[in-house]
Amino acid sequence: MAADTMLRFVVTPQSYPSKREPEARAEDFREIADRYAVPRAEEQAGRCSQCGVPYCTVHCPLHNHIPDWLRLTAEGRLREAYELSNATSTMPEICGRICPQDRLCEGNCVIEFTGHGAVTIGSVERFITDKAWDEGWVEPLVPGPARGQSVGVIGAGPAGLTAAEYLRANGYEVHVYDRHDRAGGLLTYGIPGFKLEKPVVMRRVERLKAGGIVFHEGFAVGEDATLAELRGRHDALLIATGVYKARAIDVPGNEARGVIAALDYLTASNRKSFGDAVPAFDDGALDANGKNVVVIGGGDTAMDCVRTAIRQGAKSVKCLYRRDRANMPGSQREVAHAEEEGAEFVWLSAPHSFHGDRVETVRANRMRLGAPDASGRRAPEVDPGGPVDMPADMVIKALGFDAEELPHLWDAPELGVTRWGTVLVDSKTLMTSLDGVFAAGDIVRGASLVVWAIRDGRDVAAQMHKYLKVKAAARAMVAA
Questions:
Q1: Residue 420 class from Cβ within 10 Å (0-12 exposed, 13-18 middle, 19+ buried)?
Q2: Which UniProt keywords apply (predicted)?
Q3: Strands 349-355 and 361-372
Q4: Going by fewer Cβ within 10 Å, which terminus of the chain is more open, N or C?
């Protein structure tokens, strides 16, 4: 490589794509940042130090070849950069938008440790894949030679879509079942457009449909078919439903009108962006316009709710989190974006009670950090200083998600689950307690990141491929 192409971090400052002004971006659900122009992308990619041990790759769940496609980008070899990025990820432009790079690749960049600011890996990843779509470099999904075997995938989120793509490429007939009327799972209905515009997701789905994957949308397992019936239709099944049951807040007033679950709120907002009729939004129940909104939680879902409420025209938006800023689980970038847009964070506070038949007030306990808990984080405890009251016309519970009771919902009591309700799988084969039924993504690991769901989908597809080849060989022996 040319000596002046890379290692530019000393003379070239870190520069992310420019963001729209907070007042402007709070008026719509468009993504908040532009993408790089070609010269800027090449310049920023050239800041990579090409370390011998690339910690960015080590800390990426997909182990993307990050230094290599940064080098190709810096050299202007953009199509090659895209192809290398795409080799390990089914959705690089989505990961480039929504991965918490500050906790993964960029947070572990060697240049970050030197004080020069990390390479802007996520923004470059988004750039090269968006460029690929613009230029027609994204190849269609081409099925492998037909194997005469079919696979059913339950759940059209990132884990299910990833597995479906790999399995179709290996020549299997693939059917994807999802209870929603559009594929994508949380990518479609959970993540707001200002982080991930919906056409970005839909073009990925359309590519899979064009490749012959059959989607059964609006299909609820347990209602439209039992798990046993689906097992009878296919040679193997994958459970990739994700986890959707909202964690409850056990405080007085929890059932008051106006106290709502985060996913209900975000789904309604995203459906409106598609132009759907959403009665609960239209009657005001899931619309924050003109309201004092209080969001409970400190993860990325809470940040999505906070920033959505601002865009809906909330009168005020507060986010209550029981620990301090340094100990919150969500992305610090998302917190900064929310603050820029006008949100107020009330650190070291937790709900004591909600008041009013239709919620009018949140009473919050002041908290302090005590001794470390089992995870090593200092556990929050109530400060004896007494609670504080704040007005609230809408309270959004964003405390995370648990697994639904799949054995009960699907009339499949023999499906093994953990005490948390997640599906049990063999650690090597990723198969559940049922022969030929596999599971992957959040329904196995619990609520996690999209990039981990993609990794799990990739891994389970490989295991299902092994299983199906053995099954086909056994059939052939019997036939002979």
A1: exposed
A2: 4Fe-4S, Iron, Iron-sulfur, Metal-binding, Oxidoreductase
A3: antiparallel
A4: C
pLDDT along the chain (480 residues), means of 10: 72 95 95 94 96 95 97 97 97 96 94 94 97 98 97 98 98 98 97 97 98 98 97 98 93 96 98 97 97 96 97 98 91 93 97 96 95 83 91 97 96 96 98 98 97 98 98 90
Is there a contact between 365 and 350 (Cβ–Cβ < 8 Å)?
yes
Separation of alpha carbons 99 and 28, rounded Å:
22
DSSP string, 199-253: HHHHHHHHHHHHTT-EEEET--BTTTB-HHHHHHH-SEEEE-----EEPP--STT
Beta partners for 367? 382
Angle, in degrees to the nearest 10, between helices 332-340 and 300-311 = 20
CA distance 169 to 86: 14
What's at 213, amino acid-wise? I
Rounded-to-5 percentages of helix, strand, coil across the chain:
40, 15, 45
Q: How far apart are CA 324 and CA 348, in angstroms?
A: 5
Distance separating alpha carbons of residues 440 and 295, to the nearest angstrom = 30
Q: In whole angstroms, what separates CA 184 from the centre of its chain?
A: 10
Q: CB of 262 within 8 A of CB of 396?
A: yes
227's tokens: 């798990």
What angle in degrees, to the nearest 10, is found between the helix axes of 300-311 and 262-274? 50
All structural domains of the chain: 22-135 (1.10.1060.10), 150-243+403-479 (3.50.50.60), 248-401 (3.50.50.60)
Do residues 370 and 264 lie in contact, with contact meaning Cβ atoms separated by under 8 Å? Answer: no
Cα angle 97, 98, 100 (rounded to 5 degrees) comes to 115
Beta-bridge partner residues of 212: none
Hey, how many other C-beta atoms are within 10 angstroms of the C-beta on 343?
Answer: 23
Calpha distance 416→421 (Å, rounded): 9
Model's pTM, two decimal places?
0.95
